[in-house]
Design a protein that fits this description.
Blueprint (H helix, E strand, L loop, with lengths): L2 H19 L8 E3 L8 E3 L1 H8 L4 H22 L6 E6 L5 E5 L1 H14 L13 E5 L11 H19 L3 E8 L4 H12 L12 H19 L1 H16 L3 H23 L6 E4 H6 L2 H11 L3 E3 L9 E3 L7 E4 L7 H12 L8 E7 L5 E6 L17 E5 L5 H14 L6 E5 L4 E4 H6 L9 E2 L11 H19 L5 H21 L7 E3 L1 H4 L7 H17 L15 H10 L2 H10 L4 H20 L8 H25 L8
Parallel strand pairs: 5-6, 5-13, 6-7, 7-12, 13-14, 15-17
Antiparallel strand pairs: 1-2, 2-4, 3-4, 8-9, 9-10, 11-12, 15-16
Helix pairs in contact: 2-3, 4-19, 6-7, 6-8, 6-9, 7-8, 8-9, 11-12, 12-13, 15-16, 18-21, 18-22, 19-21, 19-22, 20-21, 21-22
C-alpha cells in the first residue's frame, strides 16, 4: 500500500456514502493537500453536493465527517482492519480533510520497498510502442546548452516510459541535406577553410565556430558565394555528385563528435535517421503525389509564391512545401517522416549497426544499401504514439504536420504529439565566465548562425573542473582517477537536473555557479542528500528486520514516509502527462524532507533499539527510492560527495 492506496480508500468511502444518500452524478476530486496543516488528503465533494441542494458546503462537510466518516474510522479500529485513514475533519471553507494512518502506511510501503526491487514500476504503458525523436541537431556544429535541454527532456522521457512498461524507440534525426550542411561545403570548397584543421578543438566545434558562422557573414557581401550555396544545396539533394559525397563525409564527421557529447550526458538512442536517405528513397515524391491528389498541396500561380507548391490550412499561414526551383523545404521532409513514424507509409530503409553505445546497447542507422542491411534490428516505425521534441519556435510547423496527418490523411487511430519547450539562455555571470561579451544584459540568447553560442562540452568541462575543486577539499587523499570520475558524475547530474526541473513553457537562464551549489534546488543538493543516507547505512551494524512500525511518531519521520510512499503516483503522473519535470520536483521535495529528518531525528544515536531499526528502514527506503528517481532523471547516485 502507498499514498495512492489512501486516496483510493477515501474514494471508496465517499462513493459508499453518496450511494447510501441516494446521490449520483457527482464528479468530485480526492487529492493530496498542498499544506500539511490541511492534513494529507482532501476532497471537494461537499461543494459539488451543495450545487445540487440548498445547503452550504461547510454544513455538508461537517455532516459527512460527524455522521459518516468518523463511524467508518471507529468501525475500522474496532474491527482491527488495516484502514489507512487515521482521522478526518471539516474545513470551514467546505473541504473535508483526512489524516492518514502513518503506522499502516509504513507497514505496507516500507515492507514493499525493502523486499520488492520492482517497487513503483507500473504497467500503464501495457507495451504500447512510442517513438521519441529528440536531439536532432543539424550536423554542422557542436551541441550548445540549448540543444542539451532537448536531449535531457527526450532521454528522461525515454527512461520514464521504460519504467512504466511502454516500448519506447528513440530516434535522432540527422539533417545531412539541409542549408546548414551546404554552408559547410561552401566554406570548405569555395571559401578557403581547410577541412583538416590542425586545431586541437573538436571537429564539430571547429565547423560551428570557424566555418558555419563565418561563411554566413561572407554571404552578405559576396553574392557569388551565395549563389554557390544554392548550387551545393541542389547537388546534395540530388545525391549523385562528388559535392554530395563531400557533404556526407563532413556531416558524418560532425555527427561522430556530437554523439560523443550525447553519450557523455548518458543519452540513449536506438536509430540515426538520415534525411538524405528519406530523399533518396523517393518517399517524398510518393507522398507529394498523394498530397496533390487529396488537394492538400496547391500550386500557386501568382504573387510572391508563384510556381511554389503550398499548403493552405486553418492552423497557420500558407506554407511553401516545394520552392519554385523544385527544391523541397523543411516541411516537405517532415511530412513523410511523420507518416513513416506512424507506419502510414511503407518503411523506406534498410538498417545497419552504426555503433555500440555507452550503455552497451546498439545504435542503428538507416541505409539504402541492401548489402549493409542487418536483419535482426528492432522495429523502428509503425508506433502507436510519435512524440517529437522540438523547441516552441517550431510549433506552427509541427501543428501543420499534425494537421496534414490527421485532418487531411484521414487517420485518428494514432497519436502525433509535439512536445515543445522554450529556449535556454545564459546568465550574465556565466556568459562572462565563458568569455562571451553581452554588455549590460542580464542574460544571453544563443545563435549558431551569429556565432553566439556556448557549447555543451565547454559547460560540462567547467562544471567538471569546479566540481573537482570542491571534491578535493573533502577527499584530498583519494585517487585522482576516482576524483575525476566523481567530478564528472556531479557535472552531468548538475546539468541534467538544472535543465529538467523547469516548466517546458518557461525560458531557462542557465547559471554554472548556481547549478553546482550544495544548497537549494540543484542536482548536487539531491546527490548530497543521498550521500548522507549512505553514510548512515555504512556506519550501521544493525539488521533491518522485525520493524515495529507503531513507533513511528515524529513529524520528520511521518513527513518523509508519506513522501516516499508517493513514488508510484509520481511516476505514473509524469508518464501520462509526458512531463519529466513532475519527477524532478518530487526528487527535490524528497531530498528536502530527508535532510530535515537527518537534522532533527537521530538514527544511530537513538537510545531505543527498536526506533533505530525503524529509522534505518526509513533511511534505506529513501535510498532505494531516490536511486530509482536518479535512474530515471539520468543522474548518478553517489555514496560520497
Amino acid at each position: 500500500m502507498t499514498f495512492r492506496a489512501g486516496i483510493e480508500e477515501i474514494c471508496r468511502l465517499i462513493a459508499n456514502i453518496l450511494k447510501t444518500l441516494g446521490i449520483d452524478g457527482v464528479k468530485y476530486d480526492v487529492m493530496q493537500t498542498t499544506k500539511t496543516e490541511f492534513g494529507d488528503i482532501t476532497t471537494n465533494v461537499a461543494f459539488l453536493i451543495a450545487k445540487k441542494t440548498s445547503r452550504k458546503p461547510n454544513d455538508i462537510a461537517r455532516d459527512f465527517v460527524e455522521n459518516r466518516i468518523k463511524l467508518y474510522i471507529d468501525d475500522s479500529k474496532s474491527a482491527r482492519r488495516s484502514s489507512l485513514i487515521e482521522s478526518a475533519y471539516p474545513h470551514p471553507a467546505g473541504y473535508i480533510n483526512f489524516k492518514l494512518n502513518a503506522t499502516n502506511i509504513a507497514s505496507s510501503t516500507l515492507t514493499e520497498i525493502l523486499s520488492n526491487p520492482h517497487f513503483a514500476e507500473s504497467n500503464i504503458g501495457n507495451g504500447k510502442s512510442v517513438i521519441i525523436e529528440h536531439t536532432s541537431v543539424n550536423p554542422n556544429k557542436a551541441l550548445h546548452i540549448g540543444h542539451v535541454r532537448n536531449l535531457v527532456i527526450g532521454d528522461t522521457l525515454y527512461r520514464l516510459l521504460r519504467m512504466t512498461n511502454h516500448n519506447p524507440i528513440v530516434l535522432n534525426y540527422v539533417d545531412d541535406s539541409g542549408l546548414q550542411v551546404a554552408d559547410l561545403v561552401v566554406g570548405f570548397l569555395f571559401a578557403g577553410f581547410p577541412i583538416d584543421s590542425n586545431r586541437s578543438q573538436k571537429f564539430d566545434i571547429y565547423c560551428g565556430d570557424e566555418v558555419y558562422s563565418k561563411v554566413n557573414e561572407l554571404y552578405t557581401n559576396d553574392k557569388d558565394l551565395a549563389e554557390k550555396r544554392r548550387f551545393v544545396l541542389k547537388e546534395i539533394e540530388l545525391g549523385q555528385s562528388d559535392v554530395s559525397k563531400l557533404a556526407s563525409h563532413i556531416s558524418r564527421r560532425v555527427l561522430a563528435e556530437q554523439l560523443k557529447t550525447c553519450w557523455r550526458l548518458r543519452a540513449h538512442y536506438d536509430l540515426l535517421n538520415f534525411e538524405s536517405h528519406i530523399l533518396a528513397s523517393n518517399q517524398w515524391n510518393k507522398t507529394f503525389e498523394i498530397l496533390k491528389k487529396k488537394g492538400v498541396l496547391v500550386l500557386e500561380t501568382e504573387g510572391k509564391n508563384k510556381d511554389c507548391w503550398i499548403i493552405r490550412s486553418k492552423v497557420t499561414d500558407d506554407k511553401i512545401v516545394v520552392r519554385s526551383d523544385g527544391t523541397a523545404t523543411y516541411i516537405a521532409k517532415d511530412i513523410p517522416y511523420a507518416l513513416w513514424k506512424l507506419g502510414l507509409i511503407p518503411d523506406y530503409s534498410h538498417y545497419y549497426k552504426f555503433s555500440d553505445q555507452w550503455d552497451n546497447s546498439i545504435l542503428w542507422a538507416t541505409t539504402l544499401d541492401a548489402k549493409s542491411y542487418s536483419g535482426d534490428h528492432p522495429k523502428f516505425n509503425s508506433a502507436e504514439v510519435a512524440v517529437t521534441i522540438i523547441d516552441s519556435r517550431q510549433s506552427k510547423l509541427q501543428d501543420l504536420v499534425s494537421y496534414v496527418i490527421f485532418k487531411l490523411m484521414g487517420t485518428d487511430t494514432k497519436e502525433y504529439k509535439h512536445l515543445a519547450y522554450e529556449p535556454v539562455t545564459l546568465s550574465s555571470n556565466t556568459a562572462k565566465m565563458l568569455g562571451l561579451d553581452i554588455g549590460k544584459k542580464d542574460f544571453a540568447h544563443m545563435s549558431g548562425r551569429k556565432g553566439v553560442v556556448v557549447y555543451a562540452d565547454y559547460v560540462l568541462d567547467i562544471l567538471h573542473t569546479k566540481a573537482l575543486e570542491e571534491i578535493k577539499k573533502r577527499r584530498d587523499h583519494s585517487e585522482e582517477t576516482l576524483l575525476r570520475a566523481s567530478a564528472e558524475d556531479i557535472a552531468i547530474s548538475a546539468m541534467r537536473y538544472n535543465l529538467i526541473k523547469q516548466d517546458l513553457d518557461k525560458m531557462i537562464t542557465f547559471d554554472i555557479t548556481e547549478s553546482l551549489s550544495l544548497e537549494g534546488d540543484t542536482g548536487p543538493y539531491l546527490q548530497y542528500a543521498y550521500a548522507r543516507s549512505q553514510r548512515i547505512l555504512e556506519k550501521s551494524r544493525v539488521e533491518i528486520s522485525n520493524i515495529n512500525f507503531s513507533l513511528l511518531s515524529d513529524e520528520s519521520e511521518t513527513s518523509l514516509l508519506l513522501e516516499i510512499s508517493k513514488l508510484d503516483m509520481i511516476i505514473e503522473d509524469a508518464a501520462k502527462n509526458l512531463n519529466p519535470k513532475i519527477l524532478a520536483r518530487y526528487a527535490y521535495k524528497l531530498a528536502v524532507k530527508f535532510n530535515l529528518f537527518y537534522e532533527k531525528t537521530p538514527v544511530l544515536r537513538e537510545p531505543n533499539p527498536e526506533k533505530v531499526v525503524l529509522r534505518l528502514a526509513l533511511v534505506k527506503s529513501f535510498e532505494i527510492v531516490m536511486k530509482k528517481v536518479f535512474e530515471i532523471l539520468g543522474m548518478v547516485a553517489m555514496a560520497i560527495m
